[in-house]
Every structure is written in structure tokens, then in C-alpha cells.
Amino acid sequence: MTSLPLISVTDGDGATARRSSMPPRHLADLDLAGRRSAVSDLGEQAFRATQLSTHYFGRLERDPAGMTDIPAAARERLTEQLLPKLLTPVRELACDDGETRKALWRLHDGSLVESVLMGYGDRVTVCISSQAGCGMACPFCATGQAGLTRNLSTAEIVDQVVYLAGVAQSGVMGGEARRLSNVVFMGMGEPLANYNRVIAAVRRLTSPAPEGLGLSQRHITVSTVGLVPAMRKLAEEDLSVTLALSLHAPDDDLRDELVPVNQRWKVAEVLDAAWAYAARTGRRVSIEYAMIRDVNDQPWRADLLGRLLAGRLAHVNLIPLNPTPGSKWDASPKPVEREFVRRLRAAGVATTVRDTRGREIDGACGQLAASEVEG
Ligand code: SAH
Of 113, 141, 195, 220, which is best to mutate to test ligand 1, by the most ligand atoms within 8 angstroms of its C-beta? Predict the structure, then answer.
């Protein structure tokens, strides 16, 4: 596999550097109590924390000029200290008549990450990144090829959602204001490898305004390659988020190659952890399976997968493989895909095929690589 220089930051002197560090503190890093004490520490009255939070989470307002209920001097100090600019938009691409939009952001240290906004009827979903790059090295995923730069902070995760909720509200999708309803942690990174910040982000996204964005926990999906201890911990968080498990192969031989972390936690262990999550939360686990021609799409693998999942609180989401730079792999032909679906359903396993939203703008699953070079 060739490794592509997907994330490179050019220094002032022209040398390529990979500096990376966590960003300044932002109000979305803190719960409301934490914000109140941060505001007091700045010598302002604690209720200003609620005002700031109402602007940010309730009104999706990030411009201090729009926060006229806070006196100018306090506003300046508070926004400088608690609303630093975390995401600088580098590029926004749209397709599907504006219903799919990919945003590329630069973070304070020059790292690049992407998010994708997708409208489907009355549902508006944002797919967000939890890390700059990814350390999981799955060979069919563009993000995996670049390696990990760093974890995102809680606020860097939350701010992608708040920003794009504002974009949806502004009327650019189909000419009308749309309300963001769903969040999927399926952008760049392995969310469970940045566990504490991701959990804090989920809490911010689901706490009612002004503490948070007030989304339903059920409308949040956390996707993982299968970090078993973290999956077990997630089950104990008392959150009803949907867990997606990127399985991609029902047998260890192949999964060791497609999802290298399988060398540590095998298919049987990872499925056990998924069933423990389902039992604890009552939530159906989504089994993600990229359909790769002649690699994992054989009828016998469908049958094996069907046996592993039959009778479980699970459904399968097949993802036609999206092309990534330098990859030798291809999506399965449609008749092969249909036969795979037929066999899973015959085994009693609910199965859907995901649409390939965002392919033209490299915004589909596995295509997020944060390259600044125009494609
Ligand atoms: N690291 C997490 C979340 C990010 S990926 C995870 O792996 O679950 C989101 C989904 O896209 C995962 O199911 C991933 O396996 C899948 N994916 C990655 N590359 C893909 C590609 N080239 N085509 C289709 N799906 C892909």
C-alpha cells in the first residue's frame, strides 16, 4: 500500500512540519457548572455562562457581535476566553443539489479534519470526525492510510456539529431552514480511541439547551472498529446512543487483514461486547460491512455472518466500497451484493444497503483524508 502525504503542514520557512497540540479551552469543553466557575474566575458574573451558552447552543450564534445582551467589555473578554475560534473553514463542497455538503476545516495547529452534512427528507445528519487522522490502519479506508495526528478536543468535536447545524438552519439545503437531527461519529478517526472526549461531546450534544444542543441520544451513532474494553465501558455510561460496529468480515483470517485491531480482539470477542451493549441499552447494534469485490463478499461469508447474527439485537448495514486513492479494491458487483443481502435476510437478519452519498466530493465513508489538494 502506498502511503500518501495527505496531511502535511507547511511552515513559514517552507519546511514541512507536523506540529500538533490541543486547542485552547472552549465553553463546549465544560458542562454548565464548569462554565459558571470559568466565568467567575474571569471576574464576571456566573449567569453570563448561561447567556453565552444560550447563544452558542440555543441560537447557534458564534459571532460576539450578535450577543448584544452581554455588555461589550465583558463580551469581548468572555468570547476571547471561552469561545476561541476552533475551526477555520478551508473549503466547502456540495453535491446532490446541496443536500450533501462536505466541510474541510483547519484546526489551530494546522491539522485538517472533515465533516459531512446530509439531508434526507425530514432527517438532517452530520457525520463528524473525532480525531485528526486515525491510527487504526484499515487498508481500505483513506483516513487509515494517513495515520493519527492527534485526538480532537471535546469542543472541536462539538463545534463541527454546532457549525453545521447553523449551516442547515441558514437555508442552504433545498432553500429552507432545516433542523439538524442526527449525528454519526463516522468521519475521521476512531471515536473509542478518544473515549473521554467523545463521551463528553455526546453529553454536550444531548443535554438540553443551554447546557447543550438537546439532540436525542437515540439519534447519535458511535461507530467503532471494535475496541472491546471501550465498548464495554460505553455500555456502562447510561447513554442510549446507537453503537455501530465496523465488522467487514465474519472470520478472523480476513478481519485480521481488513481491520488490523482484530489481531488484538477477535470477531467472537467483539461480537460478545456488542451483544453486551445491546443487552444493557436495549439498542439494536448496527453491523457495518463494506462490500469489497472478491474479498469479503462470497456467499459462504454471508452465511457465516448470518449464523453469527441470527437472533441477535442487530442489523447489517452493507456499504458498497467507496474508492480511495491508491487502493487495489473495488465495490462488489450489484448481483453479488443482492445475493449477500438475500442470504442474510434468509438467515433472519435485518439488512440494508447504505447509499453512497457524497462520493463525488470524496465525502463518502472511508474517503475522508483531509487533503488540501483539489481533487
Ligand atoms: N473508526 C470508526 C469510524 C469511522 S469510519 C469505524 O471504523 O467504525 C465509518 C465507516 O466507514 C466504518 O464502518 C468504516 O469501516 C467505513 N469505511 C471505511 N472506508 C470505507 C470505504 N472505502 N468504503 C466504504 N466504507 C468504508
Answer: 141
